[in-house]
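Objective 1.3, modelling of assemblies. Example input:
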Amino acid sequence: MYLFVETLEQGLIYSLVVLGVYLSFRILDYADLSVDGTLPLGAAVAAGMIVAGYNPWLATVMATIAGMIGGFITGFLHTKFKINPLLTGILTMTALYSVNLEVMGRANIPLLNQDMIFMPIFGLEEGTFTLGLLIGIVALLVFLLYRFLDTEVGLALRATGNNRQMITSLGVNTDNMKLLGLGLSNGMVSLGGALLAQYQGFADIGMGIGTIIGGLASLIIGEVLLSNGSISRDLIAVVFGSIIFRMIIALVLWLGLPPAYLKLMTAVIVIAALAASNIKSIGLKKESPVYADSN
Amino acid sequence: MLTVTNVIKIFNPGTVNEKKALNGVKLHLKTGDFVTVIGSNGAGKSTLMNIISGVFPAEQGKIIIDGLDVTCHPEYHRGKIIGRVFQDPMMGTAAGMTIEENLVLAFRRGQKRSITKAIKTKDRELFREKLKLLGLNLEHNLQQKVGLLSGGQRQALTLLMATLTKPKLLLLDEHIAALDPNTAYQVMELTKQIIKNNQITTLMITHDLHQALAVGNRTIMMHEGEIVYELKGDERKKASVSTLLSLFEKARGREFSNDRMMLI
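Predicted structure (tokens):
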């Protein structure tokens, strides 16, 4: 039971990361790898500030903002220098490794006996408070994201990922939309990183490795099980996908899989899911982008 | 409404693949003009459209729309005043979004997009009313994904989106060429009706010479990056497809009965 609750909580924290991946990968159609750098960035900023004595809530907010800046940099590289999206993510991720080390000052910051956002208030029992707080944060963000994606700007953002040519012809600057989308996405991922560091009690330089693949695996699991194409269902699917993915990991570890094999297993899940959807071609295929005839 | 002055466009300048796609094009459209554009492949018709809409910049020349010099404006900027329908029915609509979402994106053309709920109840009423005019029964399926519609339906929807807020200029780039004959006829009828009812200044590329004369009030013929002939008024009324073909021959300066089929 304890293991179950812990896995559930991890799943909730990671669902913020998966929401970020959903924003870049699905909404914006941008394969953004910078999340491998912005997750530990969030953890580093939060842990660094908490150790330095700042309020943990302030530290969490600043971590989110740091992640957004990371996303903007990725977007900037793509929109201003016309660098391939995949490469922009790799560049940001690589550069952030140094930044994260600089922010943390060492490879690992333990957060023992520090004041963190999971400290219970109102005299609540610690376990209840942590779970309640996480559910509250995730529910709030899902709600805000749902409302945002239905606004005029939100629709323009979705159209940018769906049909860039069309939304440009309707007077929208798609460069700005990409910057906005990547900023929001990486902000969510960094927020996830900040919560994760506080939850597990340390920030580590290596904690971002495989973020994108784990995020994709969660995303695909959620979509296959729950999605019906509407935004509201997608968002809920993302959260449940994340929880189920963490459950699967907990299960295989419990069954005795050596932890070193986790990343391999994650990659296999993603490959299997992608291969299955492509072989069956069950309408998940996107239209290939059409470029204006140069004639 | 539209003035194009001495526009030159060169693709791949300085390389062996250098191609002068537009060679000093001059064109003026008065408000309410409906001009059809004809010419063989590679004549520069699509390039002209793309230059006007800002897909790529011109090497030289000026483009003025409604008194505003847009020569250096980016594509999205011009999108606020130009309506466009592309040849490919997939290009003008967002497949993964619903009919009403597509329409509301078009409905906010030229306005600042805010962080308020995009689709209001009164918008829906207007969309239903407009969709009814298409006669495709789309007004009952506002929440349907556009990707599920047929090519003809999507093209009709694109046309509606391009004209939902009256554009200063409407560009139609062979917008019915990819449709089956019956659907093409319907979309063309719709096009004529919308343009007439709203008095929209329009530039339409077509490969159908008969249609080039049948719709609009002027016809221009392009060849090797230039506008070589223009027909209007009585001259145009008297003209037939064979008139156009002989003009093509003159433009090319040689007999071309062998590839006549290409033009029809």
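Confidence is low (pLDDT under 50) at residues 254-258 of chain B.
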